[in-house]
TrEMBL record:
CDD domains attached to this UniProt entry: Radical_SAM (cd01335)
Domain Radical SAM core residues, every copy: 260-498
Source taxon at top rank: Bacteria
Molecular-function annotations in GO: catalytic activity; iron-sulfur cluster binding
Pfam families: Radical_SAM, Radical_SAM_N2
Name the UniProt record assigns to this protein: B12-binding domain-containing radical SAM protein
Protein's organism: Actinoplanes auranticolor
Amino acid sequence: MSVSSVFPQLEQLLPRVSKPIQYVGGELGAVVKDWDATTVRWALMYPDAYEVGLPNQGVQILYEVLNEQPDVLAERTYAVWPDLEALMKEAGVPQFTVDAHRPVHAFDVLGLSFATELGYTNMLSALDLAGIPLESQHRTVEHPIVLAGGHASFNPEPIADFIDAAVLGDGEEAVLEITGIIREWKAEGCPGGRDELLLRLARTESIYVPRFYDVDYLPDGRIQRVVPNRPDVPFRVHKRTTMDLDAWPYPKKPLVPLAETVHERYAVEIFRGCTRGCRFCQAGMITRPVRERSITTVGQMVKEGLEFSGFSEVGLLSLSSADHSEIGDMCSGLAEQYADTNVSLSLPSTRVDAFNIDLAQELSRNGRRTGLTFAPEGGSERIRKVINKMVTEEDLIRTVVTAYSNGWRSVKLYFMCGLPTETDDDVLQIGRMAHEVIRAGRIATGTKDIKCTVSIGAFVPKPHTPFQWAAMERPEVIDNRLRMLKQEINSDRSLGRAIGYRYHDGEPSLIEGLLSRGDRRVGAVIRRAWDKGQRFDGWSEHFSYARWVEAAAETLPAFGVDLDWFTTREREQLEVLPWDHLDSGLDKDWLWQDWQDSKTEFEQDDCRWTPCFDCGVCPSMDTEIQIGPTGKKLLPLTPTNGLRSPAHTH
């Protein structure tokens, strides 16, 4: 049965909203398939605005992987801004995909990619607009399976009432396995209804279905245990790990946005995983082991991706791109190939101790310098040892001076505030370090025309990290430290005027902390906050701390807990954490020991270059570190004429 486009009704509303182009679709790289010619249909959602969601690498990869299957259709949907949401409700227009404007409720799966927990309220808005019951228990065989993925799905307990299932880890192979299970179930005539389909997914042992697990609580509010409520589902659910990234060279046909987006570049993930061991970093912990893409695959992907898209920037993505074993040859090879074109190279965030003059010269070879960001994370040597960010102030000064000496006039430095054991002085040292950066840069370049932006984020403890047990700092303490830091930066006016200062205050971070380490009881807070009008919590102009605090005060006391219990309370070693039944491969005892090591400022090495320290991932997940060098160089690929800069066209 064909599904009609809702665009005729939607089109009437678009002149009345801001940035209507974001709802139109039809981008280069978009795919529209015949509904009736396919058997399994996915709606993929990044639960934020189009400008943030479209460039998301995970969604783009899964969109391509699924659409390459002849009998599978995948379309995209994004969060609609409140102005359009109100009009859609008024006019009865449902949540739609941007590709063919089909109603989301008609698809087999609604797959949501959560990079951050602040997208949870947008999920509820989308479900509501789609006409899908908010709570999974009220859905029937007529409704899509609501499936969560992305980093936040490593603790999906706060949204357990709203999702049907969650996938932990890499998605490329997982979505194909899920597609196969749905295809078979539909071919058999959907036996056993929705429950049978969810049971088949749960039996894979890598898809978590919350309804098949019960949570018992102790009188003091802590979790007693999480156990399966039926015999044929696993006690623990394991993450997925895609090995051999060369076999998955996506995206091949990147989406080119119609409206302005946060990133406009061809992005290649040059490796996945990180073993630097920063204790706050969930991404580095849950994506282990390190798996590199070879230099030849990266070169081929860049060639084909640029020819298809016409982008003029290539982003070499990973959690620490300068750590790739072939990064030097990769950058010099790409810089050589695109020397006479308008193509520039960028590394999104560069480790201070991995950036050198050769890399600087290759990244600026054709005169176009993309932004340079370094992340020391902590202002003092002491706090950097606590978080295992092994970078000295001398490393940082030397690195930034290298950038200034090679023509960069501005660099960005990223730090965190509110880290475990942090004092006021640890934060004030960020200001002193920024002064030293400007001072050294002026001496090295002989000019005052250099700038440095200090960007501060508030620390949020995340599941599956050594800091998962840590207490959060209160927002007023963080905000006071940020005020003191601003005064410190401006204490020397000559240096201070060359330093930009951006920060996120403590309130949104406390709520993110509630959502990141919450259990199923936090679902009531999310629902109440959404009922009060919360949307787009990642946007300061839409976020309301007062609403969230009210929602928590109205719902949590019934369970004998409160907002502080979930956020500013330090956990004990034997406490059952809400995500303990979800296996990221990391040994919980190892994480605890690393948490204890942080308090003695012990620095843990990187197992890529030192002996294994038994974090648990490789043996428990049956995986291994995959790094080069391969000994190969980039093939001499000739860029197409379309990429040549105007000065070199004939």
